[in-house]
Amino acid sequence: MVIAHDIQKWLEDRRRKRFAAAREEGLEEGLEKGRAEERSLWLEWLARKEDAESRGDRFTEPPPNGKV
Question: Cβ atoms within 10 A of the Cβ of 17, count?
Answer without folding.
Answer: 10
